[in-house]
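Sanity check. The docking grid for BES depends on where the pocket ends up, so I'm generating a full predicted complex first rather than guessing from homology. Inputs follow.
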Amino acid sequence: MNKKTSKKSIRLPIHISPSYYNLEIRPDLESGTFSGKEIIKIKTNKDIKQITLHSKDIKIETVKINRSQKVIGNKKNKTTKEQFSYKIVYDIKKEIATFYFKNKILKGTSELSIIFSGIINNHLRGFYKSKYVIDGKEKHLATTQFEATDARRAFPCFDEPAQKAIFEISLIIQNEHTAISNTLPVNIREHSAGYKIVSFSPTPIMSTYLLAFIIGEFEYLEGYTKEKVQVRIYTTTSKKNQAKFALDVAIKSIEFFNEYFDIPYPLPTLDLIAIPDFESAAMENWGAVTFRESALLIDEENSSLSNKQWAAIVIAHELAHQWFGNLVTMNWWTDLWLNEGFASYMENFCIDHLFPNWNVWSLFLADRYSVAQRLDALSNSHPVEVEVNHPDEINEIFDMVSYAKGSAIIRMLAEYISEDQFRDGLRHYLKKHSYKNTKTTDLWESFEKTSGKPVKKIMNSWTKQTGYPLVSVISSNKGMELKQERFFSSRISNKNNTEKSLWQIHIKYNIPNNTKELNKKSHKNFITNSRDERILMDKRSIIIKEKIVGKINKDEISFIKVCYDKETLESLRKEIVENRMGVVDRLGIIRDIFALAEGGYISTTEALEFSLSYKNETEYIVWSEISSGISKIYNLINDEELSIKFKKYALSLFSSIALSMGFEKKINEKHSDVFLRNLAIGNSAFYGDKKVIREAKKIFDYKIEKDISADIKGVIYNVVAQNGNIKEWRLFESMYKESPMHEEKERMGRAMGSFKDKSILEKTLRFALSKNVRNQDAPFILSAVWTNKDGRDLTWKFIKDNWTIILKNFAEGGHFLSRLLSPLGNHTNINDLKDAKLFFKKNNAPGSERTLEQVYEKIQSNSAWWKDDKKDIENWLNKNY
Ligand code: BES
Ligand code: ZN
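Predicted complex below; grid placement will be based on this.
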């Protein structure tokens, strides 16, 4: 349990609520400061003498309250005298300021005027500065990033999602700058010499975390939706030629959501802005969505397909929020998953519609879904609906449980109640709660209304309990018995667990007909003869009458793992080998088998043996699971001889697929073959396929940088780095410094973490913290070295030695620190666990409390896994390789 969860006092008092803010900000980019004025209309439901609101790193100069009140009897509008507060008290820990007044402020509405000043910081949150270079000259822009709790760094406000209000913003800026905010400018006037004042039209009623203002020198590309919404992609100078793809996707996504939600996008304008320094991928500010460059800008020649797809997904995600999140907002951060889980569901739903041949749902399964299952298999995971109070706790739940488990359980629900009823439920919910706030139950109620099914009862079991179930399949003389228990990826957590959770599991399963007979028949016959069934498993154990079952959790609809008895597994294996099983089910089986081995439910060698059934596999998403399963086991091996044998095993799978994919794109190949090629080459080279390494190096030497196809650049750089030396490192370093393209820098940074030589890896670590690397990118480079086995120990040492700098650069309340620390979970040595615990006892890691608990659990698990299965793995490898 998190120590801080009792801090309820962190919430603002409920007797004051704002309805309107008039906010004027005057930024000074050069000095990195701003001054501001605001008038907030507030309503109080009792007489008060003090007002508390959020404020962080802000100096409040004066506070005045002005009360207008209808006096009954007199029937005249009487304005009580204005009064200034006589005392302002800051509570730095709670991030609040309290204003004290001599005279009572009577119940009713008042106007609170505040004059203040603050800092345009370098922390990528609140109101912050971003730098870039044009023609050798350093340029500055300033932008906001308020979610979750940083509007309070830009102006004193009631910074909670349920304190919705209307905002009218004015910005005083240099004449040559552009100002962007949530709405359109309605008035631009001269202010003082060289300055203008830009006033924006009032926003809809909205939460503080969705406000935005951005100033700087921008260019843009513009288009319109069918419904005449003006859409602009803003970039810094000379990058708008990379904005075309984003503009297209944004327009199409808005049109799609307009229709799907049956509510028109409520603003006349939508801006998408690429910011050179940005912590996450993007932020859904209403009408003014901000992005990191690599998540928005696509260069048709130099961007890889995977980046293009990522940009499309991110755009659709943020635009889904314009309804789900912005129009209807969670009441408190406990229901954050409503925002993020839904946007994560809708991003795939929308992009699947816009780019059907991308098959994004299957990519979702292979990527985020699997990552979420891994995270949620820890006893230190958290329920989807989770109590949070302090900003550090709030920031920590922007994780794969809220996003990917959230979207996976929504996908499960949509399948359960049918797509049409799902859409109708959504429409009902969005219409009913427009401009208001909701809790999770409000959503379930809408779905119950449209579907008539017990949605709340079923879904509560998925959002209120931590973890997810393992369903075991055991044949008995009565039929097939299905049992459920919580799944743990750590055998130790499993052993220590005392909770008894129970899930309502919607199980779709396959009934094959008599396998033996059917084997003789044609493949097609088999498919038509098998059938799918559904059952709601609402008990710990149920019996399915059929004597034989095929794939349980058909199409991987439910967020579960499945463990089969030997006989059933063998018949599934045959289906795989004989190519009689659908791709998503092939993925699910191997994913679960590797996970069961890790958790100690089956032996690791069973998993290794089973993986060999996939030799003829042709689909990227399945290979992706095989690859991560294998790499987890490779991660444990700490002995040279064993490592050589293990590599032989890995190559027995990857070499032939690398050979058949080749290095060149084939005409008419499947969309996902581009990814499969990368994966096959990457793995073969990683496990030492000399031919593949030679070929990759050759391509690099011949073509360097420009002419290598963008789709394959990343993997070629990695292979060159893995087999390279200081000469290559220097080349990457200079390419990193020189490339103007963020996506290319990201590729280069990853490669710089892939070298084998320790002294070179040290250089990469230092490079990551140098001025050549933006703070937004440094954690990725540090993690690249840390996840590289050869860099593991030295990165940990580096992190400890440089903890003060790390804290200074990455601990301003965001996700950097927790993201940065998560590779610690790959360590396998129990002494490292002791060391880490000791270190973090002495040194605080703000916002990473839960991450650290998860990391500790993983190290402990790795160590126990290796201890239990080492001998067995050794024997298996000796026998076979
Ligand atoms: N609301 C988030 C941005 C955010 C994240 C703000 C964390 C504050 C803290 C945004 O909608 C988001 O989820 N962005 C994702 C991209 C998405 C495609 C998963 C991100 O930035 O990773
Ligand atoms: Zn989001």
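Relevant for the grid: The chain has 29 helices and 29 strands.
Also worth noting: The chain has a mean pLDDT of 94.
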